[in-house]
Design brief:
This protein has helices spanning 7-15, 18-27, 35-54, 59-62, 68-88, 103-122, 128-157, 164-182, 189-206. It is mostly helical. The two termini are 34 Å apart.
């Protein structure tokens, strides 16, 4: 989706999947939710609707692509929500701790295998700069889940597991939107800025405890 359409919006749609994780926490496991958090859910959903209606992005980048990138973004939204919900399950087991710290490895290994096979099948050529960038990104990718799972465990013990993803993803969305605008030069437009604002507002509301 990010390769075919607007990076900033594709990323926002995918990362907004924390709404699914929050709803699962409330509906399946009975985590308490305040009325402000329900408003947050509505704001995030409104942001997704705005992005969908606006078919956001630079028209030059979307010529011939139709809505395929947007469909892919919403598929990623559903899959991310499912995976993030699964990530939280061990943190709910009474008395359980990941003493061997295997969860980050179990998350990263399938991704490495799938992307590695895909790269080999595509027979892409990679420059030295891209290889170095990939190594740097992989290093960050190893540290990120370690910190995330630690946060999930700590928040799970205090009964505030439902706000962990909103906090982490909120920072992620804002940071990437700034990168998309300042570095990639992508345009957001009025509806796009409104969507980002609604999304950020919803995330803040979700994180209220």
């Amino acid at each position: 989706a990010m390769g075919r359409g607007h990076n900033g919006f594709a990323w926002t749609v995918g990362q907004a999947a924390m709404v699914i994780t929050f709803l699962a926490s409330v509906v399946i496991w009975g985590d308490p939710a305040k009325w402000r958090q329900w408003i947050g859910v509505l704001l995030v959903l409104a942001a997704l609707v705005l992005i969908g209606m606006g078919k956001a992005g630079d028209p030059k980048r979307n010529v011939g692509q139709g809505l395929s990138w947007l469909r892919m973004s919403f598929i990623a939204f559903a899959l991310f929500g499912l995976s993030q919900t699964c990530y939280t399950i061990p943190s709910r087991w009474a008395g359980w701790t990941d003493s061997a710290r295997l969860r980050p490895l179990l998350v990263a290994l399938p991704v490495l295998l799938v992307t590695g096979v895909w790269a080999v099948l595509r027979r892409d050529r990679y420059s030295r700069g891209l290889v170095l960038l990939s190594i740097g990104g992989a290093s960050i990718g190893v540290v990120s889940p370690i910190l995330l799972f630690r946060a999930l465990d700590l928040m799970g013990r205090t009964g505030m597991l439902a706000v962990t993803y909103p906090l982490a993803v909120g920072v992620c969305i804002i940071s990437f939107a700034l990168y998309s605008r300042t570095t990639l030069g992508e345009r957001f437009g009025v509806s796009g800025v409104s969507a980002i604002a609604l999304g950020v507002g919803g995330i803040v509301a979700l994180a209220v405890v």
